Amino acid sequence: MTRPEIREVIISILERIAPDEDLSNLDDSVAFREQMELDSMDFLDIVMELRKQYRVQIPENEYEHLITMDSTVNYLEPKLADVAK
Question: Do the beta carbons of residue 16 and residue 36 sit within 8 Å?
Answer without folding.
Answer: no
